[in-house]
């Protein structure tokens, strides 16, 4: 006769409600685990998808994923000339927030790809195609919720979504959108006509007030479109990505580039370490601590539940002792109930998670190993909390039955 | 023909509580024996030592000194338990209480069958014996009900069935009629007596209820821990 099942049957609704409550708590634990993994995956997904071996960034900065970094756009050409460098691409990224004509807010990280060298073919495109024109096309992440062919007005231009990528988010959790480098810069530098006029006037005034102002031709040029003034140079980029030739030592190329006094060079692994150790470190720690805290809360709650369940039937336990029941029968009943409670709560958490995590705004990454880890934790909690009930059961005195 | 082995035989059982100023000798040199099928009432005022004797016989509290044999087997020798007390309780002792004390999450049938299954009696045999005793006590039709769905009398019958289903040598009943009205109390006493005779169990009933004393074979009286069995009269119980 299975006493635990009969005890549960006696008040099944209470038991199931308790299991549901515990299951919801475990769902949050699982979600925290998934968000924790998601943060790590999100933070590294974008640099990984770009497939660079080395990143050249502004001297003494931590790279475009950690802080603002600017390098000259001609750095791409300089790097390409280094022996062993197979490919050099400029990279720009900036987060923008706009509003679609229908009023929906649109927040994403705009990434510029070196046209025509990088069309985004290496990205995980799940719908559509890579970029095919130097302007007015973009690839967007599926989490942005835009449709293939949808047109997005950004600044003075309208861009058409030609491809949808999957799982490419910036370290802040914003979806990535890919443009050609010049389009990304155009979006970044978009200012109003009045601002342009004021900037030109200020530039012209600076020229007039300096020795350059003696030349009327220079004064006239200084008030024109900045792109028509070669001396001003093109806009800087965030970084330059390099790929080295097969068989060439990465360390050798990196060491050579480190000799340049205006830049710092990171390998992909160093970039990873910088992202995880700096950009997402606090978030990662906070989520990790929150997850740990939830596990402790679950353990305390479960201990209390099992203790209460044991106290509720302490008279029956004393009676069982009086009837000569072996301690293994009594302790087994408590352990089975704790394991059953934990088991039901765990299954519920896994099932709920399968449905709920897809609609979470941030990516939730749950693999089988995480489910297995939670199962081990739940089992350990169940056993530990049953020990509290067992202690109470061991102390139950058969005399209580006679005294009642 | 030799005398049958007593169902229970006690010699010089003593028990004290406290030390120094709080020292109380709750049971003094209790010596007695009860034959199989014999029903004995244990009478005495509150605090006289009835419960102490009951807990010693139930192997719940050990005595300080003395010797106790149940079903022909030593269970206490020189005040110390001999063998596995749980095993002896499972096989040789039955309990009936003032309240039925049925396990609330088991049906009537399961409450009775539990005693057999705790002693590893095969399920089929346990089911058969349970059904048989529930029928003999007139509660077979309530077998699938939970205790809370039974009347007080039905609960007490199920409790008696539980106490006797494993055919113990000694049945200890603690005020089994105290919570029942006169008529129901008498019927419970009759049931106890009938079942004890049929199954050859010795019955020791702790009671204050003098109305049913005609149903017992002997009375023991206890006061200040002193058990008087010598002067106890045989009632010539009838059914």
Written account of the structure:
The complex is a heterodimer of chains A (404) and B (239). By secondary structure, chain A is α+β, with helices and mostly antiparallel strands. Chain A folds into 3 domains: 3-42 and 282-403, no CATH class; 72-189 and 235-261, no CATH class; 190-233. Chain A has helices at 3-10, 12-50, 75-80, 181-188, 193-209, 216-222, 250-258, 268-279, 281-312, 314-322, 327-356, 368-395, 399-403, and strands spanning 54-58, 85-99, 105-113, 125-128, 137-141, 151-154, 157-165, 176-180, 239-244, 263-267. In chain A, helix 1 packs across helix 11 and helix 9 runs parallel beside helix 12 (368-395). The mean pLDDT of chain A is 86. With 239 residues, chain B is an alpha/beta fold. Chain B has a single domain (8-228), classed as Rossmann fold (3-Layer(aba) Sandwich), CATH 3.40.50.300. In chain B, the strands form 2 sheets. Chain B has a 6-stranded mixed beta sheet with strand order 7-8-9-3-10-11. Chains A and B meet through helix 1, helix 10 and helix 13 of A and helix 1, helix 2 and helix 3 of B.
Summary?
With 404 residues, chain A is of the alpha+beta class. Chain A has 13 helices and ten strands.
Per-chain topology:
The complex is a heterodimer of chains A (404) and B (239).
Chain A: H1 3-10, H2 12-50, E1 54-58, H3 75-80, E2 85-99, E3 105-113, E4 125-128, E5 137-141, E6 151-154, E7 157-165, E8 176-180, H4 181-188, H5 193-209, H6 216-222, E9 239-244, H7 250-258, E10 263-267, H8 268-279, H9 281-312, H10 314-322, H11 327-356, H12 368-395, H13 399-403
Chain B: E1 8-17, E2 24-34, E3 39-43, H1 50-57, E4 65-70, E5 73-77, E6 80-81, H2 85-92, E7 93-96, H3 108-118, H4 123-136, H5 152-164, E8 170-174, H6 182-199, E9 202-206, E10 218-223, E11 226-228
Parallel strand pairs in B: 3-9, 3-10, 7-8, 8-9
Antiparallel strand pairs in B: 1-2, 1-4, 4-5, 5-6, 10-11
Helix pairs in contact in B: 3-4, 3-5, 5-6
